[in-house]
User: Fold these one by one.
Assistant:
Number 1:
Amino acid sequence: MPLSAVILAAGKGKRMRSSLPKVMHTLAGKTLLAHVYHTACLLSCDEIHIVYGHEGDQVREAHGTFNARWVRQERQLGTGHAVLQVIDSIPATHLVIVLYGDVPLITGETLNALAEAAGDSGFSLLTAVLEDPAGYGRIVRDEAGNILRIVEQKDADEQEKLLCEVNTGMMAVRADLMKKWLGMLTDDNAQKEYLLTDIVGFAVTEGIDVRTVSPASVMEIKGVNDRAQLAELERHYQHLQARELMGKGTTLADPARFDLRGSLQAGEDVFIDVNVVIEGEVSIGNQVSIAPNCVIRDTRIGDGANILANCVIDNADIGARNRIGPFARIRPGSNLDEDVHIGNFVEIKQSEIGKGSKANHLSYIGDSEVGERVNVGAGTITCNYDGVEKHRTIIGDDVFIGSNTELIAPLKINDGATIAAGATISKDVEAGSLAMSKREAKVVKDWKRGRTK
């Protein structure tokens, strides 16, 4: 049966106490809605419909790459009313899978099982048994185990509140049946809303077998209503990612203190210490070591590299056997060849650093091309910005740059040149030459320092 997915994402999320719509909050670096959308894409749906409402333009703009049909729910009158906004545009023969934009950990495996369970009856429901079912609608069954109805907690009597099997809200229903039942909904309930769950009762009345499926883990069906719940799901998701990485051979010093907010491809014998955050798309080669408190984003790290503590590496290419840090910052557009050393409090931006070159202390290299086997002394800076435009500094092979040097771009320092410590260089330097700009030291004898009164 062809599939259409409907993702309900119109709620404000008052308990989040945020100006952001609830589905815009992030889990592992990706919005809640993006998690659900990408899972829906695993189902090979003919079409994905997203029902949006509160701050809808903001939600649409943030997810502009989605291949989905966006439908605005002008007034949030309940889940049944939300699905009603899209049902006319779904072919009658489709199976409609209803998902929620604030339930981010649902898996493709569970949803495929839900679709298959609909079978000939055209109706399946995702339920779960919880130790603490508070807040969820309860599944009411007859003595034979057949579903009779779903009762929301606000409408449940004391006996029904003791039931532990709950409705997750996710269901798969044939479109023609859903359309008919949506037209029968009323707001005669404690919430004064048109509730999608009421169609279960209609199906039972018509003698339709409502089949149920349960997820592998109850964490799959947990929604986000406040920041505490968001934090709980974040830690669970990070735990799953950590276990997967370790299963593939990566050593994590403490899986509970590792965050992956994107994707990570890691080679053999990789070691990642505590409090490392991986963002975007990151690739790590073999025998790489990453020390504590590093943030690495959209970066490739070559074999044998050693990233020391407290480094930030963003959108860069780190060559094999590089030694980076501690406290180094590698900014976007930086490409470091093999055997490069970038030391403490060194910043590299939009620059290429040649094989075997070193900048070990307190330096800034921006908009530069640095050759091979170059030594950059402590306190060296490339002055690449004149207040209007950026200019490039080109440094050849085997150049030695002394400490506390200013290189004023545009500038070219040719192969084998030496720049004396303390120099300010604004003109090109010929190959093999020495450049300096020292002033003779002046000593004033018997000078008395001023004192504050």
Number 2:
Amino acid sequence: MARVSACSDTPKRILIVDDEPVNLHLFRQILKDRYQLLFAGDGEEAIGAATEHKPDLILLDVEMPNFNGFDVCQHLKQDNETRSIPIIFVTARREEQDEAKGFDVGAVDYIHKPISGPIVLRRINTQLSLVAAKELESSQRSAIQMLGEAGHYHDSDTGIHIWRMAAYARTLAEALGWPSSEASILELAAPMHDTGKIGIPDTILRAPRALTAKEWEIMKRHTQIGFEILSKSDSPIFRVAAEVALCHHERWDGTGYPIGLSEDYIPESARIVAIADVFDALTTKRPYKEPWDVERAFGEILGAAGSHFDPAFIKRFMEIRGRILEVKKMWDQIEAKQKEMRPDPLHWLSTNNQKTG
């Protein structure tokens, strides 16, 4: 059974695995004042401790009898309950092929014996900081998903619209020369473009007819409501989302809303999302219309160049129509499977971070 040494001033828990008691004692002296420690003297004990206690990090000796560190690491990475725990190998081996094998089976770092206290502390701090950053990113992505879906809570017929149009937006942004990092931010911001619809009555959002003039004025307010909500964050993603929420209904010729911006005064992010949003709306079923075929939709988009849309952006959009159709096909397939197993679009976006086409 793993031995636990509690430390009340920090919740971070580290599992130390080594078959030499003197090494366990040395790690204890280095780490006892900063972390909650667990100890295991062999590979089998290590797997049991990791499964039971879910430590925040594992320091794992490579050279142990019967079940060595590579075996232990491989086993833990194959188990969904323990695969996300970062593992740092501790070894006297310095051969390049040994380190390569360790990284291949899932380790995040190496510490060489004889161990140095300052080096151990820095390596652990680096890995725990990376974990904290990932947890923060996960929380932010959860907020994005909730806000994106909230904007369409009363609009049940849009389905996976927000995720598909976000993929269109990223594809067009990259085709326009945006750096991949900025295109990724836009892709995450775009799903929140209609967040402000949570302030619009569902009788208007679900109306299976053209809106009255009074209803239309109420509907227009969703851009400002969304901006007011999203602009409260200083995060780059939410700043772009606020910009898009406010301006995605502006038109190139200045006849849009809510401000009446025209041409280059409209942020590029909003010009891109406007194209993606309208193309997806045209090609999907809505309460008031059947889906258009893609040729008709492309024709409509092209015809609005210079009035509704930035003509240069439309030119590029038409040039990459093949890539746009590939994105559509992929998300149409995901949508078709929704009834069987609901997809997690943001997880897909984060784990498939490559250009389409």
Number 3:
Amino acid sequence: MSEAIVIKDLIMDFKKDRVLKGINHSFESGKIHGVVGNNGSGKTVMFKCICGFLNPTGGSVTVEGKRIGRDTDFPESIGVIIEAPGFLPQFSGLKNLEILASIKKNIDITEIAEIIRTVGLDPTSRKPVGKYSLGMRQRLGIAQAIMEKPRILILDEPTNGLDKNGVREIRELIMSLRSTERTILIASHNMADIDELCDTVCEMDAGELTVIR
């Protein structure tokens, strides 16, 4: 297996606080990787460095052979759900995804509607996203992350806000996305997510990453 993501000596400072303390780790392609840790441990900051959303203080992140911030600003093929998904509240879920899809023009409205159905939402609903429940927003966030079939998928708390049935459906969806060409990183407080889904597990604690399995 090739290494999809390579992190070397990654340091991230916010003023006087060192949030990431020289992380060294590789994530193999074709696997689902879990990252556990308390709030404030640095998981989300590491994910944002991988995505190119933050420029690290030191070290490097290389995704599919390209160093982020030097060879490219953002990974070429990535889907992300980090923190609360941001959508235009006045538009429907379908319209929101249609607007996002218009940037790359990789998929058409029929494919977008199918993805919305896949995550358990109704693409014909005209309800504005501003009136969605937390669980519905989470489902739509997952839809936007996966809709363009990215090779790298980063899911920060993917089952947040979902009821028991929703959690089961999203776990099944994530398992169905698994393939030899795709690398999935998941952060979750729900250890059942990690135990059921992940091939490898790391723990982030106070900005340091250690391998659990």
